[in-house]
């Protein structure tokens, strides 16, 4: 496995994690489902691309956890001005939402530990890319 492959795979998983983190807090009652789907997708994708169990478990967990946490924190920071308008409870609600974002990130990371082995198994079963056929040699002159 190339070490150069780990960086792009982590960044792809991180961006997907951020997207699912944003969806987690935007979808009112469906937050837990977005965490579940996001963790599985990020874990599967890292496993499929890396095809190495050890690396895909680590990078799948890390990218899902950090991505969903960052996505949740973006939403928390976006609604912080609305929360600060609530007297006495605004700060408490902001801290509570930040804790929920970290817990959702941790949940997505744990679910990514399920998706990564599935991605490794599917990735290893895929055949190598088809090579273009060379032109057959010309018949010898007579």
What does this structure look like?
This protein is mainly alpha-helical. It has one domain (3-123). The chain contains 5 helices and no strands. The N and C termini lie far apart (50 Å). The mean pLDDT is 85.
Protein topology:
Elements lengths: L5 H21 L4 H20 L2 H26 L1 H5 L5 H36 L17
Helix pairs in contact: 1-2, 1-3, 1-5, 2-3, 2-5, 3-5
List its traits:
142 residues; mainly alpha
- The assembly state of the depicted protein chains is single chain
Mean pLDDT: 85
| Strand segment count | 0
Q: How far apart are the first and last residues' alpha carbons, in Å?
A: 50 Å
**Rg from alpha-carbon coordinates:** 21 Å
Strand content: under 5%
Query: Helicity range of the residues?
Result: over 70%
Q: How do the helices and strands follow one another from N- to C-terminus?
A: HHHHH
Number of helices: 5
Provide the structure class: mainly alpha
Q: Kindly give the count of domains.
A: 1
Give start-end ranges of low-pLDDT stretches: none
Main sheet overview: none
| Shape designation | elongated
């Amino acid at each position: 496995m190339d070490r150069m492959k780990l960086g792009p795979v982590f960044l792809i998983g991180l961006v997907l994690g951020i997207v699912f983190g944003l969806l987690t807090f935007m979808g009112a009652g469906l937050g837990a489902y977005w965490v579940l789907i996001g963790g599985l997708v990020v874990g599967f994708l890292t496993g499929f691309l890396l095809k190495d169990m050890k690396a895909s478990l680590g990078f799948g967990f890390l990218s899902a956890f950090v991505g969903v946490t960052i996505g949740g924190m973006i939403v928390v920071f976006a609604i912080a001005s609305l929360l600060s308008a609530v007297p006495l409870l605004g700060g408490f609600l902001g801290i509570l939402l930040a804790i929920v974002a970290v817990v959702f990130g941790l949940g997505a990371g744990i679910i990514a530990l399920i998706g990564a082995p599935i991605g490794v198994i599917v990735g290893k079963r895929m055949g190598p890319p088809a090579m273009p056929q060379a032109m057959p040699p010309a018949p010898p002159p007579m």
